[in-house]
Amino acid sequence: MTNPNLSLRAEQAVIGALLQDPTAREEIAYLKADRFTHPTYREVFAELDNSGAVRAAELPERIADRLKLPGVDATYLRNLAANCPEPADIAVYARMMQETYVRSQLASHVDRIAASAGTVRGADPKLDHLDRLAQALARQAAPSHIEVQLEAAPATYQPTVVEVETTVVVDDRRQREELVLADLLQHGEQVAEVEVWLSPGSFEPGPRREVYEAILAVYAQGEPVNELTVAWELGRHTATVVYANEVEVYQEPAGPAYLAHLMATAVVVGVAMEVGHELFVEDLRTDLAHDASRIGAQAAEGERAESSARQELTQVQNARPAPQHDSSLFQTHGSLQPPPAQPLPDNQPTIRP
Predict the structure, then answer these.
(1) Alpha-carbon gap, residue 93 to 24, rounded angstroms
(2) Of 5, 307, 40, 241, which is closest to residue 146 (Cα–Cα)?
(3) In what order do the strands lie in the sheet with 243-244?
(4) Beta strand 243-244 pairing with 166-168
(5) Measured between alpha carbons, how far is 177 from 295 in angstroms, rounded to an integer?
(6) Which of 73, 103, 232, 262 is 20 to 30 A removed from 176 (C-alpha atoms)?
(7) Exposed e or buried b per residue across 33-63, where buried means at least 16 C-beta atoms within 10 angstroms of its C-beta
(8) Strand partners, 43
(9) Torsions phi, psi of 340, nearest 5?
(10) pLDDT digits (tens, 9 = 90+) for 10-59
(11) How many angstroms separate the CA atoms of 60 and 44, rounded?
(12) Neighbouring residues of 125: CB distance < 8 A, sequence distance ≥ 6
């Protein structure tokens, strides 16, 4: 499901990228003004299309003077430009907007199909089928409140750390996992080297593993790895879940607040490679020790089974009775004698020398 806040951030990123480089409009020529959920951004986008060959430095003043929208002045537009994650990735932000639009269109079909299905179930298989279809579409549709945004121009996105209710015990492993994630988010070009050997299993189940899986998914889609793209990927799958283990309890899953915390974490480029390698080696040693223990246990079990089989065989041999002889043979013949020779027949051929 599309997150309304992330949808606005995608719209702000598109506007900010165009304010920095108006020629980037060619990369998203398919994008229409009605794809923006907020009316302010629809008007700003349309004005950008009408600005012609105006220099990027002059665009904020020109647009603010021509539109005179509440809360939209030159400073506001400059902030949009300054806070664009990466102007070169405008095609990705436009794709996010298209996804939001498609999901909102699905939402309208959900309402229509649900109304056609009615409320009675079991009487008509066709109506039951419509109900199941409406439920399936609803899982992919956007929330209804994402379609209409009537408030004044929303504040430009500013990364802030939002405290997540947690109970934490100092955990060196957790800190190292977070350093890896922070470095990958802040320097996404390293994912290409790390994803080959560092698996999601190296991260504890919960937010950290979710973030790493989202990073891998974004990279596999050929998109840039940054805070917005990873947050968008998380938003596709996130549901309210409680993760608990011996060292921490999370009341919320991974999301924008946790990503903001990772983005605010001070790291040096290359930490993901160095610390990630440490985690990989530790996991490898743990797996090898587990396999060695399992093989040793199997060998010991085999030896015990073999020893038990030998003992059972010895007991069977010791319990076997001695062979018994038929005494009647000795009573009749006194001793065992070879059988008597049989007489030869009379018609034997005469053999001459």
Answers:
(1) 12
(2) 5
(3) 166-168, 248-250, 243-244
(4) unpaired
(5) 30
(6) 232
(7) eebbbbbbbbbbbebbeebeeeeeeebbebb
(8) none
(9) -65, 150
(10) 999 999 999 999 999 999 999 999 999 999 999 999 999 988 778 899 99
(11) 10
(12) none
Instruction: With CA atoms as reference, report the closest residue to 272 among 283, 264, 280.
Output: 280
What pTM, to 2 d.p., does this model score? 0.69
Tokens of residue 237, six digits: 């799958």
Kindly state the tokens that stand for 99. Answer: 């996804």
AA letter at 197: W
- In angstroms, the CA 170 to CA 147 distance is 43
Q: Which residue has the tokens 């596999």?
A: 220
SS3 166: strand
SS3 249: strand
Q: Enumerate the H helices of 74-206 as residue ranges.
A: 74-82, 90-117, 125-140, 172-186, 191-194
User: pLDDT category, 182, cuts 50, 70, 90?
Assistant: very high
- Token representation of residue 6: 């992330």
For the record, the structure tokens of 225 come out as: 């790895």
Q: How far apart are the first and last CA of the chain?
A: 115
269 and 191 Cβ atoms separated by less than 8 Å: no
Tokens of 139: 């899982």
Number of H helices, E strands in the chain: 13, 3
- Token duo for residue 146: 């994402």
The DSSP code for 223 is -
Average of per-residue pLDDT across 307-324: 72
Whole-angstrom distance, CA of residue 306 vs CA of residue 38: 76
The SS3 call for residue 90 is helix
Residue with tokens 């009379």: 346
